[in-house]
Amino acid sequence: MALALVALGGCTKDHGSEADFCREVKRIPTLDAVVTGFVDTEPSALDARLDDASKAYATLEDAAPDDVRDSVSDMTALVDAVLAAVRAHPDDPEAAARDLRAAVKDHPNAARSSLAVASYASEHCGVELNPKVVDTTSTTAVSGGSSPDPSSTGTTAAG
């Protein structure tokens, strides 16, 4: 019996590796690139874009090594929920946004996990997943320019 369990253990899928992860993390699209302008996108093109993104993130999850696998899984679960919201409401951005807010609430670890994945990608792969935030509240004068909008926070949404 013990021999059978050992033999079955050898059949389980091996987890990914750092090299696999680094290769795949360079291929994943940002969510911004996938969902921006979805309402104006022809349905078959939108479906293809959503399908391609879903496959890319699933491949990334499969490629993830043990030390970042749980974080990639959490992040991918939220990505799948985002893609499902867009797919469910391709003509209704308000309904998609409502579903997106619900998805974020349903995936409370996703933000922390996404940061962990971004950190791993940066440290191990040299890939920056989160854009650098540029401080637009600087008071440097530019000839002919205007002062920055004080209501601007100088932040961008990470994709």
Q: What this model shows, in words?
A:
By secondary structure, this protein is mainly alpha-helical. It has a domain at 16-125. 60% of the residues lie in helices and 0% in strands. The longest helix has 23 residues, at 66-88. 21% of the residues are buried. Mean pLDDT is 81; it is low at 1-12 and 138-159.
Explain the layout of strands and helices.
Layout: H1 2-9, H2 18-25, H3 31-35, H4 43-63, H5 66-88, H6 93-106, H7 110-125
Helix pairs in contact: 2-4, 4-5, 5-6, 5-7
Summarize this entry quickly:
The protein has seven helices and no strands.
Main attributes of the structure:
159 residues; mainly alpha; 0% strand; disordered N terminus; disordered C terminus
Average pLDDT metric: 81
Strand tally: 0
**Global outline:** globular
Strand content: under 5%
* Helical coverage, percent range: 55-70%
Q: Could you state the order of secondary-structure elements as H and E?
A: HHHHHHH
Major β-sheet profile: none
